[in-house]
Amino acid sequence: MSNPAGPNADLDKSATAGRMGKASELLVAASAIISTRGQINVSTAILDDDGIDLIFPRRGHPETLSVQVKTRFSDSIQVQRGQFSIPIREETFAPAPDVYVLGVIVDVVAAVISHAWFIPSEIINNRLTPNGQNRRVVIASAKPDTKDQWAQYRIVPNQLGAHIGALLTSLQT
Known about the structure:
Elements: H1 9-35, E1 54-57, E2 64-73, H2 77-80, E3 83-89, E4 99-107, E5 112-120, H3 121-127, E6 135-141, E7 154-155, H4 160-171
Parallel strand pairs: 2-4
Antiparallel strand pairs: 1-2, 3-6, 4-5, 5-7
């Protein structure tokens, strides 16, 4: 069966999603570096087979936070309905005290992070079991007055760097 949108439509969609995802990761990285005036650094893996997109160390300290970034965009139907879904593939999920999942909603017009959830991987591991597609799915409300189980992990986007810095400090030996 041929694809009415053309033979490369699925490839184009996948390439666009990959580009937008990588751009969002870089937006997160830049935000953390700038908001801490360079006190936090960011590394990325050439390959993210382990599902880790960004690694955050504090300058002069060995402790790191490993972060899997999951992005949705403000023009998606789900986000416009006030919901945010974070599917996490079991194959790339390895909970640990220094591993977090960062869910962000990016405003596509302003090119800024409008919402963020910074969730410890161990909490996700304890609260969710893999579904039939072998994914754990965090479903959070993006509504300001939400009291869902993920509300306590919501952070103000411009406080992302400070939040990461505080977590890194808590890991120091």
